[in-house]
Amino acid sequence: MLRAFSLLVPFILLFNIIIFDPIEIVAAGEISESINYEMLKDPDDYEYGGYLFSDKKQLSTKSISVTAPPGKIIKKLEWVDKSTGTTIRSFVDFTPGVNKWINKTDTLSGSKTMVRSEENTNYGGVYYWDRWSIFDAGNWYGKHWRASGGAVSKRDSRGCDDSAATENVQGNLLPKYPNCTDDALEAKIPRTKPFYVIDANSPFYSQWIRDGGISKEEVEATNVKVDRNSLIVSGGVPTDTGYADASTLPKSGALVNVTDLNLITINFSQSFNNDKYHHYWANPGAKQVFYFNKFYADFTSYTYVYKDKLLRATFADGTSSLDITGPTCVPPAGTIQLTAKLTKVDGSTYNLQRHDKLTWRSSDNGIMSVNASGVVTAVATTGQATITAHFKDTAQALDETDDAMIQVGTGASCGNNGGGGGGGDGGSGGPPNTCGIQIGAARKGTVTSHTVMDPVATGVIKADNRDSEKFDVLDGIPTSESLYVNVFGLNYLYKNQWANMTGEITYTVPVKKTYLLTWTIPGTPSSGPDDPGTPDEPMEEEVPVEEQVTITRPYSYWQIDNLEVYKLSKTTVSNYALPGGSVSLTPAGYTPPVLTSDHSASLADHVEPASCEEVDLGTETVSGGSSRPAVPTTDFTSAAESAVGQNQVRNDKVLFNGSTVMSDSWAQGTAPSPGIIPPAATIQRDVLYGRNYLISSTLLNKANTVSNGTIDYELIPGNINGGSHQTFPVNAINTVTVHTPVVNYSSVTDDQAHNQKTTPNPNRSAFILDRPFTVRIPTSGQHRNIQGYGNRDYTKYVRSKQVYFPFDVYSSDKRTFYPKDTWITIPTAQLDTEFFLPVWVDEGDYQVYFRTIAENAPPDYTTQPDANTNLSHHVATDIEPVEVIGRVYDFHITDIADYNWETVFRKQKGNASPSGASYWTGLRGIDGEARGNALPYTLPIAPGKHPAQGYKNAAVKTGYHFKFDLKTKGNMFGAQDGISVTPSFYFVNKDGSGRQPVDLYYHSGDRKFIRIGSPQDTEKRYVILNERLRNVPQEELQDTASYLYNYGGAPAGISPAAYAKQYMEKISKSKTWVGRLDWMLLPSGIRTLIGPKSGLPTSVDGERANAAVQRWYGEYSLPADVYVVKKGTDLAAYGRSNRLDEKSSVFLKKGYIVVNFNIETIREGNTAKPHLQYIHAPLMNQWQLEGYSRTYTDPYGKRFTLLDGDIVFYHADQSSKGDFKSQVPH
Length: 1226
Hints:
The protein is mainly beta. It is built from 8 helices and 86 strands. It is 5% helix and 43% strand. Strands 38, 39, 42, 43, 44, 47, 54 and 55 form an 8-stranded mixed sheet that branches. Strands 72, 74, 75, 76, 79, 82, 83 and 86 form an 8-stranded mixed sheet that branches.
């Protein structure tokens, strides 16, 4: 990932993010404004470019205050995604319609963004094991290993090293290495690289993040890889440097411990099954082996981004209005009271009759008039007019008008006696009164609606376990893994309509008063004594006055037009990977809302008139002086007003979760305005959560399977006027890719330790006939580099793993036979499986096939090499090229014609019966196991090797031949196959000193001094297979004859019995030319077939199996008169300047002639390219494996140094001619 400009680019890109203007016109009359805010952050949180990166999943804001502009209210206060402009949610507990929101805080969740520190590496580590000396009893005499460095779960190799390759230390077979596998090793990896954002969909992609902004609780080790290319310095260990061992594998879920962001500890496994890096100590058997490890790892965590959200306030015009309330009919000559209800922009209301900003007017003063207090007086006896109320206050920006149509009329429905059923006579059930009461019909006014019927439902399907998901299901998840489903939606849904019902009650109040009028009629004065005159006459008159005064009282209450509340019921999510294709979840830990409601459409249930009685103002005396006074004109309105109380009103009832939304308590005149049902929060994440949904192992791999879902809400009791069960879609559920991974990085053992080929094939592993071999089919290895896959073990997902051999094999214990071309199933948990290669398998090149079948593979599956990274394939395959190779082994001398050695090989002198003694290369067999022979019966034949007393000086006299035979395995049964034997000659002094290569000369007839190997050396050598003293077993001869007869070696037309007789009596007893003194080729004529004949599987050809092992018979001798010179001596030149005869000083005599054989196998007559080597193969030395010793001490303590292939010591100064009964042909 390029980082060079990572600090600049993301924030250049951020200018493309949607940024809202501080003030924005949203809709007519509305404006939107971004509100500045700050977070309560930690000191080590990282701020850059106006954004905050924190290690906390949630942070609180500092206090926030919002004030609406004049004439506006706060309609919405919302959190908005800065990059998309999408509304996230409202500010917590925000109440719409207010003009101030002061000192409030909210808690925000940071945007979870993945970060990674890539390719951190450690310095490398080393685990080392020690093997102690063969003399150390406290440490098992070197038979086992101890772990000496590094924390391992197994401290010694007991139980592991039984199958380890061995090495011989002074006759002790010791394990070359521990051969244990430890899957609980630990490596510490420090963090050396910074964290960067890796989410390609994030606007901060590639941005460097300071450590303080990284979550310490979510760190994971990802993409752990073995560093196999870096040289590791091992510190104080003797081997200074090395590379990570090939078996090193990080374990799945490698994270062991995270101490902080700067160091992680991972688990890994290693097999201590080689000694590539080793050191031998001075003590015999003491050895140390080393296993290096080194890793790369990514540190993956999250940062939580803040300040990526805008706080947006939306301001709207406040709603103001003016509404006329009161009677709509006035009786002739009567009056009614109207009221103007003023609603201001902040929602406050005022019932006005007189106000300096309020004016009243009538559209027709001829019909009715209205005064400044809203009292309407009928002028005409019939008709109608419009009464207009107008409230204007420039300072408050209020200018509202309302009209009411008023009728002049009579009857119960009009005037002071009118009204719809609210009057009464003071009887039971109502307030006591003697007034006329008219309850006006309720009018529906303002209707407020609130609807939240979108659950905003979303869902996810992810891999268990939540918050620590093993797989990213968008990329892939295997079968037999489990999923969880999480659905989110609102806690409840609702919709409601509240209707404001208004009206008036008109009271006709009888008011009476009695006026006592008093005056005095003046008398006449006396005109004289006889005229006394008349006295003043006091007068009084009682005048009762009664007036019906109309008083109007408004009422206002709220009733429910509609109320529906829904609780969460269930959700159903569908996807191919879910059990049965879908799962349903019912809420857990969920508390549904509780709704209580009471509704009535009857006016009587909402309005009760006030008590009202007639008013008696008593008697008032009015003095008129000398004349009758006039009855006063008095306004009884104030007295009537005092007599009428306030109406009692109440709303319908709504309680939500115990809190009052609409109160049904009685109130005077105006019932309180209802509130709103609180906004629903999103349900907690555990409410609709299900886990452990196992992906069926029968599901085929499939990419991007579509997910669908529904969420159901159920109507709860208490609803009014409607509602039914609701189903909504669950949006944005992710897809799931099912991909069951298998890997196949198989290998086979390369048996180099037993590979005798002259030219080994470096591109093929060697399988040696009649030996075990091992196949390894790991279920771990590299798969796709996606979460949960990568380089790990995939055993869990394997149905079977199999190997296919194009040749016959046995199980390691040889109890089970597998014919060629058979798919063999290996236990899935078993890493290595040993097989045994039958000896009758043809030598040659083969391909071994491997396949690992996923548990969800269909019958017609397709395959992919190494790993099924393409999900259309369900099987991973591998191919290993191998070469089947034979053996050449078991060379031994079975007879020496020298009479001194007769009793060694014969039961008694002159008897052909063999003693059973022979001289082998060493004390060990074909594979290095103890053969069973003992000293002195090992090569070479030399003084001291004779077992009888008195023969300690005995070597072999020249002229005597020795018989030998050896064995081969493989395709050495052809007519042109043979054994190449190339003699070479050395001279050594009798004290073991002065060993040197020499040339040998002999005489033939009148030809003198012929050098062995020269063109003049034409003496032919012959061997008779079925010779009396060779003692070839008759069964071998019969088996060989049978094979030759059945496989084309016999003449046509002869019967099996006749040919067998011919072979036994004639062919096998005839001479076979094998070569000359300097080189022999043992041909098929002196070969017998000795392979297995019993216990063979029925499918195996018995004669082919018998032919698979061959024995080759030969013999060799030096001429009786042999002359030894230093190799390269020009004897002719010597003779020209010196006298040359048998006694010349140029000849070496006081010592031994050592005959050395180089033995090779020849296939199909191709002597230019020998097939196998007995001694000089590049990869192994069979001569040494069979225990040949390269030193020899004679009976006199003289030490001789030997070469591989030394066969016989001949006396350089003793000839068979000196023996009376010599039968040597020379």
